[in-house]
Write a structure and sequence with these properties.
By secondary structure, the chain is an alpha+beta fold. The chain contains 10 helices and 12 strands. It has 2 domains: about 20-65 and about 85-225, Immunoglobulin-like (Sandwich), CATH 2.60.40; about 250-340, Immunoglobulin-like (Sandwich). The chain binds copper (II) ion.
């Protein structure tokens, strides 16, 4: 299995080219949290048991072939097994059935125990996140009993190591599936319903997730990045995200904000601290603090941002953002402004 995974992973990485962040991992066999370890244990048990059965069946088959008497064309047919009941064969079949049943029950019990363990994650002091699936990006809302402490971001989750996280899942359009293999199994985002998933990261790191339900043309380019970090780093990140976007100070950046507010961008995007307050597209208040744009499809660099704004259809055909023709001066100003959104 390891071998297969090792062979398949680089191929997939090549296929999805730029959208795989080099430093993030996406690997169900390397759990980074307690929920994924429960699932990993179940997988190891299933693999171990099935390997034993496979080896046993193969060994018996080879033994039977090796033991069978050699015969030629002249050898008379051996019909003894039809006429004389073979007690040994009966016993063999009986034992196989008993062993198979016991094996299946072992798996069944392990499965139930895994489900119970997954449901038993202690949830005190949890971080609450609302995750909303869109074609083809993730809206992320950090909720809080105090409304002033809530904030919205997109496509990148930050979570504190060692603290439980309760993610409430909803969809804006079609069925999507959240899957961050290092942290947990899959869970569907179904329109009109709210599902919950509880997880905890026990090791800091960057874990890649992927929409795991075919949700339309750009399903393959609907990734997300989960950064699990020490609690103090997480708090600092959350505090920075709660702030509105800084007022631009330079001439160029001020002009960029004007470009943003006077073109179509404001019809779909929000930047806290400005008049832009639409929710059709990702919240851009802290765009520059994210590593990727367009749900993990492109690195967040000036060049990619420029190409994205001028013609998003080229990077992600079918995407729900139109091309915006801008003069080079306007584009440079807009980019300079977007880069201040730390
Ligand atoms: Cu999706």
């Amino acid at each position: 299995m390891r071998v297969a995974v090792t062979l398949v992973t680089p191929t997939l990485a090549l296929l999805s080219a730029a959208n795989v962040r080099a430093q993030s991992i996406q690997d169900a066999l390397r759990p980074a949290g307690i929920q994924a370890s429960h699932i990993g244990d179940l997988w190891n048990l299933t693999l171990g048991l099935c390997t034993l059965v496979f080896i046993a069946v193969l060994a018996m088959f080879l033994w039977a072939v090796w033991r069978a008497p050699r015969s030629g064309a002249a050898t008379p047919p051996d019909t003894s097994s039809i006429t004389v009941p073979e007690r040994r064969i009966h016993r063999g079949v009986l034992w196989s059935v008993v062993l198979a049943t016991v094996g299946l029950f072992v798996l069944l019990i392990a499965d139930v125990r895994t489900s119970r363990a997954l449901a038993g994650l202690p949830l005190s002091d949890a971080v609450h996140i609302d995750l909303i699936g869109h074609q083809w990006w993730w809206e992320v809302r950090y909720t809080d009993p105090q409304p002033s402490r809530m904030f919205t971001t997109a496509n990148e989750l930050h979570i504190p190591v060692g603290r439980p996280v309760i993610i409430s899942l909803q969809s804006n359009d079609v069925i999507h599936t959240l899957w961050v293999p290092n942290l947990h199994g899959k869970k569907d985002l179904i329109p009109g319903r709210t599902a919950l998933i509880q997880l905890r990261a026990d090791r800091p790191g960057a874990y890649r997730g992927q929409c795991a339900e075919f949700c339309g043309l750009e399903h393959a380019l609907m990734a997300m990045l989960v950064t699990a970090q020490p609690p103090n780093e997480y708090e600092a990140w959350a505090e920075a995200q709660r702030q509105p976007a800084p007022q631009p100070s330079g001439q160029l950046e001020m002009r960029g904000l004007q470009v943003f507010q006077s073109t179509t961008c404001v019809m779909c995007h929000a930047i806290q601290g400005t008049s832009a307050n639409a929710r059709t597209g990702p919240d851009l208040t802290h765009l520059a603090s994210r590593q990727t744009i367009a749900a993990g499809s492109l690195p967040n660099t000036r060049g990619h941002l420029a190409a994205w704004i001028l013609d998003p259809q080229k990077s992600k055909p079918g995407v729900n953002m139109p091309a915006t023709p801008l003069s080079p001066a306007d584009l440079q100003a807009l980019l300079a402004y977007l880069e201040t959104l730390k």
